[in-house]
């Protein structure tokens, strides 16, 4: 469960998030939709303790992120898949993350398989396509077997197979009872993936609605 309450965040004179309130419930995929610059990434960064709000709060499983004892086991996140650092191969990268977070080595092997990177686990990340980096970023997010997942535009740069793969993965994770928040600026990406939509514009809530309310009657 993610709770965002009256959250406001400014950068100088820019109000990136403006009194935003919504909850993200477990057991479904919640789409976080809004045009570029709407405040989606900023909201996620505050949830993840990477930015400090001016006012309001963001809680994960009832606590601020910086007060969670084992954050990676509680919350997994994919923010900027292009920016994977810390290891030269998927195996080295994920093993390093697992060690730093006291996560068992068995999880490293299992997430590499889960995201379909087993064949390139010992290949250099430097030569990876954006799609492969997305998979690696998702593997890192899943490493701690977290109850809550935040993914910022995970579909960017993926081919149709990759898009289908992410959709099936996220739907499966939600079906296991996890909380999944997925941002995108494209409604078309949400239609087949999200059960629920939180729509924002200029940092403000526009709609918080079940997906079925927005799909055409056929
Ligand atoms: P989205 O993820 O919906 O595209 P962002 O949260 O990235 O939106 O951006 C919201 C607004 O905040 C935009 O106007 C953006 O330019 C501004 N912004 C985001 N991060 C920074 C930053 N580090 N410094 C200054 N302005 C920022
Ligand atoms: P309290 O103990 O009353 O919550 P704090 O002394 O922790 O108050 O101060 C709140 C400060 O924590 C604010 O300046 C805010 O910017 C910062 N902060 C960082 N992350 C969060 C969050 N997720 N929710 C609320 N405040 C946060």
TrEMBL record:
Signal sequence, start to end: none
Name of the featured protein: ABC-2 type transport system ATP-binding protein
One Gene Ontology MF term: ATP hydrolysis activity
Transmembrane portions of the chain: none
Lineage, broadest ranks: Bacteria, Bacillati, Actinomycetota, Actinomycetes, Streptosporangiales
Complete-protein stretch covered: 1 to 218 of 298
Boundaries of every ABC transporter domain copy: 2-218
Keyword check for Transport: yes
Keyword vocabulary terms for this entry: ATP-binding, Nucleotide-binding, Transport
Family named by the database record: Belongs to the ABC transporter superfamily.
């Amino acid at each position: 469960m993610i709770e965002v309450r009256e959250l406001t965040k400014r950068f100088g004179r820019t109000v990136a998030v403006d009194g935003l309130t919504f909850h993200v419930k477990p057991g479904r995929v919640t789409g976080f939709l809004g045009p570029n610059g709407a405040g989606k990434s900023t909201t996620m960064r505050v949830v993840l303790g990477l930015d400090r709000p001016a006012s309001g709060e963001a809680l994960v499983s009832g606590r601020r992120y910086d007060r969670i004892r084992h954050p990676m086991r509680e919350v997994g996140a994919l923010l900027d898949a292009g920016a994977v650092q810390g290891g030269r191969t998927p195996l080295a990268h994920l093993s390093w993350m697992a060690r730093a977070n006291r996560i068992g080595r068995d999880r490293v092997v299992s997430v590499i398989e889960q995201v379909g990177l087993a064949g390139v686990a010992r290949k250099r990340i430097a030569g990876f396509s954006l799609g492969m980096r997305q998979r690696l970023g998702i593997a890192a997010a899943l490493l701690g077997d977290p109850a809550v997942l935040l993914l910022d535009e995970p579909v960017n740069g993926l081919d149709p197979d990759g898009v289908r793969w992410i959709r099936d993965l996220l739907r499966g994770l939600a079906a296991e009872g996890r909380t999944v928040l997925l941002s995108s600026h494209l409604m078309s990406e949400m239609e087949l993936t999200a059960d629920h939509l939180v729509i924002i514009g200029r940092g403000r809530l526009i709609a918080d609605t079940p997906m079925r309310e927005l799909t055409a009657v056929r």
